[in-house]
Structures
1.
Amino acid sequence: MPGLFAWAASLVRLCDPAGHISVQWRDVSSGGLGVALLGRLIVIVFAVMVASLATGVAIAIGVLGPQWHSMSGDVGERVVFWGTAFIGATATGAIGLLPLAILIALAESFKIRSLVINAAAGAAMLLLGYYGSGLAPPSYEESIDHPPPPVSREAEIVAASGAVFGLVYWLIAGRNAGRWRERGNPSS
């Protein structure tokens, strides 16, 4: 595609270990990696927004799940559900923005494309944000009648919604992490 992107051809001389000189043609573009990086950043921002929305829906389902059978489709119930989803998506973005930027930068630089690693990183990020922000109830409250569960329901919801975040992010952007730096291999 030499004419399409106004590639300039440059001649590169290489020496192999035997001392023979070989000549190869290399495509050099004025903004190839810069444009690829810009496109990748747009995909990452879109993936984070969609993953935050999916996380908010997962939080809403987790919180309102026990009452799901009583939801008849009333307008008020739908407003409560989508309001909870919006609050969950906003909290996800607010709590996890800086750790998320660090994790995305690491995944892009080391080309980490694993589905399992993305899901585990999403769950760990939200769990650490949940406990680190002070939203978690204290774990030292006990009752004489029954001991507290080893993992609270809120922590389970946070871990599951973090895994949903990681899965949705992987589906949109994570499976192509670092591929923008490779020449000749377009992101697929």
2.
Amino acid sequence: MTTTTSIDITTSTTTSTTVTSTTTAPMKDNFIPAPNRAIDPSKPMIALTFDDGPTGKNTLTILDLLTASGGRATFFNIGNSVEANSAAAKAIVAQGSQIAGHSWTHSDLTGLSSAEILSEMTRTRDVIKKVTGIDITMFRPPYGSSNANLLAVAKQVNEAAINWSIDSNDWNGASVDQIYNNIINNANKNGAIVLCHENQANTPEAMKKVIPELAKTYQLVTVEELLYYSTKTISAGTLYNNK
């Protein structure tokens, strides 16, 4: 039995949740921990992901919507925003969702030296550890840009790189209805990873429609949970965009 800790934030209705693990399975590929809640691997799963946080209010709105539908998601946080929005970062963990890295400055890491990439990644993982106590296992390269040099550094810091298979296009000025349609009309395959951005004005409002609709068909899981049940070998320094 694992009990998540509630965070006293008056702007959020997210509360503590108690989840029961139905598995004592070991880590997958000695990298991804076993889920701490009941997930049926025979049923469809989808992983919503939210970049460019934590933002505070938007983070909490999305977490409340996930809780209401029994879902979780993955939040790829920009390192230099974590301490300023530490309550939101802690709330991600308290809700049961996954926190992960998205570089320190949101630079295109493929244009940096190995030493600069290492700084971007280690500063981010260190501040997330300081604020939440979590050792992250994954990061998303800004703009989805990746190369061999970046993945070599990711392997060095023991993180897998995560991109996506469905783009909500919320970053491109999409309306609430366009975000909804971009996700729902393409969520037709088990194991998709959906790209969203929590710092976009229309994203939280769109999630009020997207999350309940997806929950009718899919288990809303974190990327760690999704890849735990993948047939792929999961390892640091490798790029993944779906189950």
3.
Amino acid sequence: MTIDASSQPEQGPNLPDGAAPPSGDRLAAGLRGFGPLGILAILVILAGNAVVLPLSAVLVLVWAWRSRTPWREIGYVRPRSWIGSLAAGIAFGIAFKFLMKAIVMPLPGADPINHAYHYLAGNRAAIPGALFAMIAGAGFGEETVFRGYLFERFGKLLGTGLGARVSIVLLTSAWFGLAHYHVQGLAGAEQATIVGLAFGTIFAVTGRIWLLMCAHAAFDLTAYAIIYWNLESTVARLVFK
């Protein structure tokens, strides 16, 4: 009986599950480790977005290729259905944003107006940049770094058991929240932490990143639409008047 290769999960560059780089490839081994070269790679990757979005995610892909890290270890696994995952991700992202805006964030008394991005309201000139930031920077970029890359790195340090995976979800979610604090303040950090917990839990269970990329982009684009049409206060008071 033959097996259709197209139905199999996407494989990494050259390695089987759990395999280390060939002993002769010291560069690959160093990049995957936590010695000076491995730590330098981590710092360079994390600093990438300070140059331009989504450079950090692009560097993650370069790191995975050169370190011979299987793509599935950073969540790059072919979905069972591209269209199905796209549709599910979009639906989940839109619903999740309305849940956060109308129910979750009003509970601690968050300001319904996102002042950091309120300049986008009715701002047609900002549309191209906003779309790029939310699709490439957030959907592709943040998911590749915070779910794919950091889960792989922490997994190598902490292991793959249940306790380790819970710890990784908590660590990456807190980090994700802190990354949003300097721009969006406390409410933005709280929302990002909750999003990180939700997306991180899904990634920890499925090990797949495509649906989360779609969901993250849809989440941010829904937030953008609410801001653009100046509906933040209206949506925030749909449940709690």
